Amino acid sequence: MVVIKSFLLMIPVAVIISIFFASGEATSHSNEEEVVEYTAVSFIPESDPMTDMIDNWIEDVESATDGRVEINWIGSTDVLPVNAQVEALESGVIDVLFGHVGLYETRIPATTALALSNLDPWEERENGLYEKMDEEHDEINAKYIGRWLVGGPQIWLNEPIEELNDLEELQIRSAPNYTRLFSELGISPVITDPADVYTSLQTGVVEGLVYGGLLGPRENGWTDSANYVLDHPFWNQNTTILMNEDKWGGITTEDQKAINQATTDFEKEMVNYFDEQNSEERENLKEIGIQFIDLSAEEEEIFLRTAQEVEWNNLENIIPQKVDELRMLTDEVQENEEN
């Protein structure tokens, strides 16, 4: 695996101090009630189309709590490097994180189940996966609130392939949570800063990338080089809305219930929104000449099965005592049979 670093990001002390003292601050809302203002950070910038629905969730929470809980989304890696975000949430430097389990799955391996889930978010709440994931997040002093994005990751390529074996030895821009799958497929993963993806594609440092859906690559200019998409999304999205557990405990039971219900309703709206956006983006991509590659039915089945089993096998090695339960909670067929 190749790791490329453009420079070391340091957090100015003044920034950390200002974030800390803004975190979880209580202010007067009226003569009768108090408002808690919570500071939030995301792992990708607000300008990215994948974050389109975050503001909706914030508005829904504030409305559901009649303004008693306010969320101040202060930025992304511009205020806190991505590799410091989970620690900042755990310690209470920030209150809310719009992140993904890849940032902390080494500490909580069971959260990989979110990426392997065959269910919609509301089904996960009905069958017990949500509750299980909430329990697991205690390890990082976090309350798991829900999902903020849907859509499976896809592989984008500079040159077309005809069969699965053509992926072998390709240099693909990646992230740590894809390493096991890529190793199984013979792909050489290359870890770069997000800001360096465009240049890496243009200069041939990488021959493609893996990305969590169709939204984003065109806006980021990556389609200048990556003109082909392997049209077989694998896994589920692994993004999570997390709140510092201590800050969650500072919210009244009434408002906790209101936030949970608001998030349940939001997830349905969010799924519908991104389904529509992905359909529109597919057409936009075709208009600029992006080609979608379909493997044979046999190779598609091998690819998707491999993507699942590589991760389940890893969990068998790490947390064998939890795998049977996690498989049951992520499997729609078994969940329906129980009902």
Automatic annotation (TrEMBL):
<dbReference type="GO" id="GO:0055085">
    <property type="term" value="P:transmembrane transport"/>
</dbReference>
<dbReference type="InterPro" id="IPR018389">
    <property type="entry name" value="DctP_fam"/>
</dbReference>
<dbReference type="Pfam" id="PF03480">
    <property type="entry name" value="DctP"/>
</dbReference>
<keyword id="KW-0732">Signal</keyword>
<dbReference type="InterPro" id="IPR038404">
    <property type="entry name" value="TRAP_DctP_sf"/>
</dbReference>
<protein>
    <submittedName>
        <fullName>TRAP transporter substrate-binding protein DctP</fullName>
    </submittedName>
</protein>
